[in-house]
Write the structure tokens for this entry.
Amino acid sequence: MAFLYASVGHGGASGYLAVMALFMIAPPVMKQTALLLNLGVSLMSFIAFYRQGYFKWALFWPFALGSIPLAFIGARIPLTDSTYKQILSACLLLAVIRMVVVLKENTSQKLNQGVGILTGSVIGLLSGMIGIGGGIILSPLLLLFRWASLKEAAAVSALFIFVNSVSGLAGLKTWIPLDQSQMLYWLAASLVGGFLGARWGAAIASNTKVKWILALVLVIASLKLWFV
């Protein structure tokens, strides 16, 4: 998950959540764990795309300005397990659409700062509520409204995910004790995968077959969340 998501400028939270949903892990643990794993992967992805010259500060700050405080607030909003699973299910389907629908690159439109701040606020609130960084929502919007090229969107989304994950973690009302030995394995796996995926994705296009397999996993997890 980390390899694939880092290759397109994402931290992988929706993927981690999908896997944890398949194994029936409790939603509060899912949320906290996904945000923690998001940090290292999104940071490595950002560094890889930044070094290639794809990061645009003017495209990043309006979204971040709106999202950071709202991600903190969203993390403090209590959700029932059923509501959490339904919202997450919808976001997983959005992640699938993001992977399988190829949008044409056209950066002819300039971002309106007010629109960016408002959009970032909505994404930040939703991200904090379910424990993702928001990249699966932001990156398709950047491409759909022609604000960024594919790799510019990856660079901006990666840092956006990192700051939202930090804010979401800070906003958690309670920290759940995690199995430290298990968490170390997950963290190590995500960092290795994220490092390799970020380096690969900054220079090479995504592998179509692997993306379809990942999309299938997300669809199964989404259906499981909605109906179980």
